[in-house]
Predict the 3D structure of the following.
Amino acid sequence: MDRRNFIAGCLGLPLLAQAGGSQAQAGLTKMIFPFAAGAGGDTLCRLIAQEMAPALQRTMVVENRTGGDGLIGIKAVKGGSPDGSMVLVTTGPTMYLLPMVETTPSFETTKDFVPVSLLARFEFAVVIGPTIDAADFKGFVAWLKAHPDKASFGVPSNGTIPHFMGSKLEKDLGVAMTRVPYRGSAPILNDIIGGHVSFGIVTLADALPQHRAKGVKIIAVASAERSPFASEVPTLKESGIDLVADAWYGMWLPAGSSPEFASKLGAAASAALAKPEVKEKLTAIGLIPVGSSAEGLTKELAANTAFWQPIVKATGYKIEN
């Protein structure tokens, strides 16, 4: 079964740490990012690590440990020493979806990791192409119901938020649809333009260039409020669908790490994200910097888990491991 991520990576940069019950000597800390380098995640990691390094006075090298939909990197940090030598940065969905879809969960987020901070949000969009005769989401729903034989949608991979968003839409709209998994957003957008699939669910940042060029049309965003990057596009909630499905990056330490260190690390990350030059660079690539306390990250994880668990369970989707 094809296992892919919908976010990409980070490159090595410095960061500092102080961990365990006592102060760690100045040395090397590895920020583990479980996806390949490139795109928004890469920029996020570069920027915050660069800003955090002088504040925390410890070198950090960001490593891309790819594979298994993020599991390789996640398990590396799970098994790491709680001494400040490892920190995990990954997307929220990897931390709450993977335990739901694995036949035997490889980790339990709340037991195997110490929360540090929410870092940045990104958004999902519902996209149609020029072959679809619809001006907005409601018009597209009418089109789907009139053409049930053409009801197909592309997602960047199976087992992702777009996959389960499609399942929720299918149930709420009462239209049977064919899900088509791809390797990323670019081929989805190409097939939407060519009329090979009726619509796609991709990250807003990936869809915006084609939307602005009139190649595709974003008819809804899945965030709680209209996106600052496409304020003319209504949310799914505004369009009559009770679904909010944004995603985010978060930071965790291995279980047993010092709460004091987690707090210091989170404060440094939040301070970095609050800098105007960092905000400007992140918003330019479709990321919304937030920063939070450990409690904020825990609350976000719990809310997402509670929302998606019944939806995922209803699909019966599982990854054999």
